[in-house]
Specification:
- The chain is mainly beta and about 400 residues long.
- It contains two helices and 22 strands.
- Strands 2, 4, 5, 7, 8 and 9 form a six-stranded mixed beta sheet that branches. Strands 12, 14, 15, 17, 20 and 22 form a six-stranded antiparallel beta sheet that branches.
Length: about 400
């Protein structure tokens, strides 16, 4: 039984060591205060820089007196203002509508056209003639890089801005984006962000003329021609009015409107009893003696070789029809002028026109289609059938 003896020996040796080191072993020694021990350790770590790593004992150097440091006030720094979003209220625009070439318009290849947008100046600065419409991406379609505005546009005013373009030679769909540029070079657009572009969107389709035999006769077709502008399809882009009214007529109008009206009739039947294929503009003058109705179309750049074509007639059954048709125009918004006129009565045959426009080549022209009664307005059911400009 050696283990008890070993234990007794160890205890005796421990007691001798404690006595030799000056420690008194008492039966009523108070228990160690753990919180006090933790506090002492923390104070020691604080003095030593907070490190609890074991250090190699070094000879203690005399403690040098530390110079007292007087706290200095920090330099006052101006508080920066909180960043807030800023906006350019000077140059703002709102797109109102497309005046010409509605989105998806179908054009023949290599056709010159003018795209016109109606914009409102919603900013605080006047747009002068150094402001411009600039190409911003997509299909340029021969448009110039920049087109200056035609006149000054004060805040709140609306302006029609036009760009001369040309359809591509290949079939397909094309779209081009345009922005506004201020006289200081700032680029801006429309929409909530004021950076949305205005754009033009067209489809190019080659004209295909197919002659079809029906009951031994031919359906009337246009000879091979390059369509430049279709007055019939775009008739509500024109501003229609009579000579005595102060405002514009509704488009399309109502056939019961005594102020005059314009409506579209497909394949109208004329005074000779024949139906003409295509679009007929039924234009009735104001219901008074000497009444009139006129539609002013958006600006078109006229080129050499362009012609105005249409068929003039009276609606079938309107035996009292006696009207004067007039093709008039304005150059760059100037005075109203007359290119030609034609009188049509119910007893006459429908009149086919092929008017040379070479005298207007190189001009920006607003064409005006006008009908005036020859005396009474009774049954002046005046038709422009397939009115168009070709080249």
């Amino acid at each position: 039984m050696k283990r008890p003896l070993v234990s007794i020996s160890v205890m005796m040796i421990f007691a001798m060591l404690m006595t030799s080191c000056g420690f008194t072993i008492q039966g009523n020694t108070p228990a160690l205060d753990e919180n006090a021990i933790n506090t002492a350790v923390a104070q020691t770590l604080a003095v030593s820089g907070g490190s609890s790593a074991t250090r190699t004992p070094q000879a203690e150097a005399p403690t040098a007196a530390q110079p007292s440091i007087t706290p200095q006030p920090l330099a006052t720094v101006a508080q920066l203002p909180s960043p807030t979003p800023t906006s350019d209220n000077c140059n703002l625009a709102k797109w109102e509508n497309d005046v010409t070439i509605p989105d998806g318009s179908v054009l023949a290849p290599d056709t010159a056209f003018i795209k016109t947008w109606r914009l409102t100046n919603t900013g605080t600065c006047t747009w002068n003639t150094n402001y411009a419409i600039v190409f911003a991406g997509g299909d340029q379609m021969s448009a110039p890089a920049a087109t200056n505005l035609p006149a000054n546009v004060p805040p709140g005013a609306t302006v029609d801005v036009s760009v001369q373009m040309k359809s591509p030679s290949a079939d397909g769909k094309y779209a081009g984006n345009f922005m506004l540029r201020s006289d200081t070079g700032l680029i801006f657009g429309t929409g909530a962000s004021h950076m949305a572009p205005i754009f033009v969107s067209i489809e190019v389709v080659k004209l295909q003329i197919v002659v079809t035999l029906v009951f031994g006769g031919f359906i009337p077709v246009f000879p091979l021609e390059q369509l430049v502008y279709d007055f019939g399809s775009n008739y509500c882009l024109a501003n229609w009015r009579n000579a005595s009214g102060v405002g514009f007529l509704a488009c399309p109008g109502a056939k019961t409107d005594a102020a005059g009206f314009v409506v579209q009739v497909d394949s109208p039947k004329l005074q000779d009893g024949n139906t003409v294929n295509g679009v007929g503009l039924f234009t009735h003058p104001q219901w008074i003696d000497g009444g009139s109705i006129a539609g002013t179309y958006p600006i078109l750049a006229v080129e050499n070789g362009m012609k105005f074509k249409t068929t003039l007639g009276c609606g079938f059954g309107g035996a009292a029809c006696d009207a004067r048709f007039m093709l008039r125009y304005r150059i760059d918004g100037g005075a109203l002028q007359e290119l030609d006129r034609w009188d049509v009565k119910y007893g006459d045959a429908p009149l086919k026109l092929n008017v040379d426009l070479s005298s207007l080549a190189g001009k920006n022209v607003n064409f005006v289609l006008q009908v005036v009664t020859n005396g009474s307005s009774a049954q002046d059911w005046a038709y422009w059938v397939n009115p168009r400009i070709v080249k």
